[in-house]
């Protein structure tokens, strides 16, 4: 049987640096666990624009459709700020999500014990926090038509459209309920059914999917603004949160920050199963391209490494190896190893991006 295939799209800014550490880890699995991958690499974002005049070349898009998993670093940078909207680096990422139909975006917000002091919230509010935000990723206001900037009388009007079909809501709801069954068995669905028709439909459909297929899972509904408030007040009340594309974008940033670990959080974007039974999948850190520190060896590679752990779990049926990698990361943090973004304690010297990768590999070695 051929090895599972991975397409690496390291992208811009710190993307290539943090992805460099993931490549070391991929090699470690080949050498030490007899788990080899066929890895290819290509461009996305600003670097693709520089070479091809588009943030995602058609050939790259075609490759992404073929592989078992895409690993993405980050896209964007100030040098691309003035580009036309249609070729901005972010459009490359949005095209991947849309054309691969990656409708279910898993964003865990987990508080590492060693980092609980970093949260802007009190330690007892966040210690042990482990929630999963499931964000709908291929529809809603990000993609709805009509959209654009139009002339209307003697002024312009900017238009975006929030639009959800029942089947789009159903499939992401199922994904949330399935995940909940493997975790704390609770789903909280968030929308604004008090002001938006799309929210009314969202609530109704999530409830129906629950009542017909997932009665064993505890379901609650919350308006998304109240959800944001509850996330800050007592986040441990949540297990799985399911929400739309835009609310999910906002709520996942808030949730990430309250773990104190923005540089640490991974994500998985999953689509429908392919012929081989694996979901179409793209894995990426939640953080951005951090152009201010790019190229200096300062970036924290952990979010990208944990994204690979999610790939092991969701694309490659290697849950035990994902556990091993996550435990190695926790071990290194518990030992006090810190990249510059994690430095609170005085007197601790930060390690570089590649030193952090090496420490994690040493912890992997020690796990054997
Ligand atoms: C995210 C990002 C993207 C989004 C941007 C880069 C297009 O904020 O993945 O959360 O808005 O979805
Ligand atoms: Mg975002």
Automatic annotation (TrEMBL):
Catalysed reactions, semicolon-separated: (2R,3S)-3-isopropylmalate + NAD(+) = 4-methyl-2-oxopentanoate + CO2 + NADH
Documented EC number(s): 1.1.1.85
Binding residues for NAD(+): 77-90, 288-300
GO biological process: L-leucine biosynthetic process
Annotated GO CC locations: cytosol
Signal peptide: none
Subcellular location: Cytoplasm
Binding of Mg(2+), residues: 225, 249, 253
Keyword set includes Membrane: no
Highest rank taxon of the organism: Bacteria
Cofactor: Mg(2+); Mn(2+)
Subunit structure: Homodimer.
Function: Catalyzes the oxidation of 3-carboxy-2-hydroxy-4-methylpentanoate (3-isopropylmalate) to 3-carboxy-4-methyl-2-oxopentanoate. The product decarboxylates to 4-methyl-2 oxopentanoate.
Protein's name in the database: 3-isopropylmalate dehydrogenase
Encoding gene, per UniProt annotation: leuB
